User: Fold this.
Amino acid sequence: MNQADMIHIDSLCDQSLLMAYEDLSRASILAEESLELSEQLGYPKGIINSRIILCALEIFHGNLDLARDKMSQLEQDLVIQASPDECLMRLNHVRGLYFIRDGNYRDSFDAYTRCGVLAARLGKTLYQGFSDNGKGCVKLDQHEFEDADKYFKDAGRNFQSSENKIVQALVSLNEGCVFRGLGKIEQAETLLKDTLELTVQKGWKIIECSVLDELGSMMLEEGKFDQAEAYIDEGIEKSGRMGYQNTYMNLVYEKARLLIQKGQLDRAEQLLQESSSKGQNDRYRPVYYQLFAEIQELQGDYRGALANYKTMHEVLNKIRGDQVFYSILKQENKILLPLKAVKIHIDDADSLFAWSVRNRKEILIRDGVNDFHDYVSKIKSFGELQDGEFFHSLICIPLWYINDVVGVISVQSLQKNAYSNSDLENLRVLGTYAGIAIRNALQTGKMNELNETLKRQSATDSLTGLANRREMVRQAKNIWRVCQRNKFYFTIIMIDLDHFKEVNDDHGHTVGDEVLKKFSSILNRFFKRALDCACRYGGEELMVVSGDINPLEAAARVELLREDLSSIEFSGKDNTSFSVQFSCGIYGEIPSEDSGKRLPRITSIVDAYLYEAKNNGRNCTYLSDDEKKPAEKFIPPFNRS
Assistant:
């Protein structure tokens, strides 16, 4: 074949990938045309590249399982065929797409990085742009907005040389998302609306749907429900018609959230049921179950809500690879024996398993008595066999994940010639899936552990161990919702340690920190119910958000706390000792409005009550359950004359 044909096929591959951001049906036609032409002309690189693009299109369609299968086969083929760097560059781009859709950010970032390195070596500025854009998307999903902005700017510079301006619209969409993440809402809205206008004008339908999704989500977050609904409804109609599943599912989720916020629970539930009946990929099932649970909780169906939360966690465990499934080849005349677990070192010279891992090669033994000498000098038993029986047939396959061997899979038989080349091929296919599953399980375990640590750190004040201010706001909204639904009192308690600056000045900040930690520990002991949240509000100010307790009951509990604290002597500078006291403000009401509007007002009220206590002698509590009436000083029953 001539050079012109090869250039034409390579161009078709690039066109089909770019078309994926415009029209998936047309993109598939171009990729199939490229594959067919490559096969007709005997162009191996074109065949591989066309298959890579078809794998990418499955990801755009939302068919992640099918994409993973195709990608695994491509990875095997590329190892066997020693394919050129251009194929590896394209495959790494697709791996980046797959892993970010699957929520595996580390592997996605690594794949995009490898894609960029190869693209720079080959002078492929389009793929350098895809690499930077992909890394920006990873950082965007991880809320590292400044890093994301840097990568998107790099992508924009690389895309400038592209004749197809659709990639620049893609970067504009992503930069709009960055502005939103940085809190620059007006800039985000302006850029996204400009991008929407351009995509409508050019007919770039898929990016148009993504912009509608982002604008709808942003308007919903800003409380502009009418605008949000208009964007979301248009996006649902267009993405559903085009079969762009990822964006369609996102938009259905946003529409259900909108209906829940508007109190239209039945409509939200109906929408989710209709969407679920049409099928959805595993990524969206957990959030749908979460929304079902929220709806049922608001309707008072706690049993149903609990069942949906449980199902949500089961689905998450399954799709994250926490459960690794395996199968065993069962054929006639093949005896399956139970084996005891054994530990084998990679350098064990007598282990066939260790030989397979060290040499990264498969083993097929048909006659163990004679054939094992090809691999080891003497064979180590795989388990305890009766009457001196010996394995005569064996297959051992290294479990690969990209370029790493993560284990081995093996079958053995007491009979000679029990396995054929066909069995070897079947086990090889199983080994491909098992390798990916094991690696994912190991990575998921580490990621889950890290996420739990980060979650605790992001929600907790490092000094006191209480909730931090952000976590308090989150829990306050939940407690407010429960109180509003059940007509409970919602009460806020604000506490400030009296003359705490003098403690720091006289005894040092280390002693001051110890006082705060001790006081926080006592506070946590008095407010530890499910509807309590104690937090460090700032400096020496602590706050408790409490549900199903009125201000008088809260004040009585605070007095018990005060009594406990008064009995503690703290060790100060130069062997001195001292005690501490605190002032307190309390306000509570039965919620009737939305928490977003009312919570800031209640916080300012209770803050004013706290300063009233400080201005009236300190070491006391001022409280009220009606903001129109002045706060009163609380006098404990045991102090009343």
